[in-house]
Amino acid sequence: MNDFKVEELLSEIKLLRETVQSLAPKIAKQNDLDSADCFVWSPEQLYLQPVAKPNRIEIALIKGVDHVRDILVENTERFAKALPANNTLLWGARGMGKSSLVKSVHADTNLKQGTKLKLVEIHREDINTLPALLNILRDSEHRFILFCDDLSFDHDDTAYKSLKAALDGGIEGRPENVIFYATSNRRHLLPRDMMENERSTAINPAEAVEEKVSLSDRFGLWLGFHKCDQDDYLSMIYGYADHYGLEIDRDDLRAQSLTWATTRGARSGRVAWQFIQDLAGRLNKQINT
Prior knowledge:
Helix content is 47%, strand content 12%. It is of the alpha/beta class. It folds into two domains: 38-225, P-loop containing nucleotide triphosphate hydrolases (Rossmann fold), CATH 3.40.50; 230-282.
C-alpha cells in the first residue's frame, strides 16, 4: 500500500470518527447554582452559565427614577423573604436605566438582607425554552429572578404564548421560588400596528386584541420610565462625577454635559453615562464599574 492510499485511508477514518462523534448525544453540563449570584441561560445545553463579574452599577447612582426604584426594591425584598411578590414589567423611554435598575436592585437586596437571591438572564429569542428552565429551577432551594432585557414581540411571533403560560397560565403555574422581571420600550410588548392589524382582520376584533394585550396583564407591576428633564440629567452627571472622583469645575461640567446632550438630541441615563466615560477618558481617569 503506497503512502497516498495510507493518507487517504487515515483521512476517511478521521472523517468517520468526526461523524460518529457529531451523532452521539451531547453530555449536558452540570448546573452549579452555588457558583455565582448571576447566570445566563444557555438552552442548547440546558445550562446556567455563571457570571463571575456582572455588569452593573451601584443603586445610588441611578437617578431620576426614585418612585419606580422604591417600588421595585420593595417587591424584590418581599420576594427574597419568600413573601408574595409580583412579576414586573419595566417599560418606557430608552436609556433611562430599566435594565440597570433590575441588576442593581438584585445586588442591593442581597447586600442588605444577606440572602442568596439569584438573577438569571434569559435572552428574548430563548423565551420558548422557558418551560425547560423552570423545570431546572423549580426544585432548587434558591430563589430566582428571571430577567429578560428588551422584551418585545413582532408579527407572526408566537413565543409570547410560551411566556403567558410560564407566567401564570400553565397547569403547573409559576414556581413559588421564581419571579419574572422584563424590560421593554412597549407597554403591551407588542407593536401598535400588530394590534391594529389583528383588530382589522379578525372575525372578532376585540377578542383578537385582548389575547395579545393579556400578555402584559401577567405582570402585576407596570413601572413606567419617562424621558428625564434637565435637572434629572444634571443630577445623574453630578452623581457619576462625584462617585468616580472626576476633578472638574462644576460650571464646566454642567456646560460640557449639556452640550453633549444637545449633540445627541436626548437626555437620559445612558447619555449621561456616555458623557462620563468620555470625560473620564479625557481626564486620564479609570472608571471601575
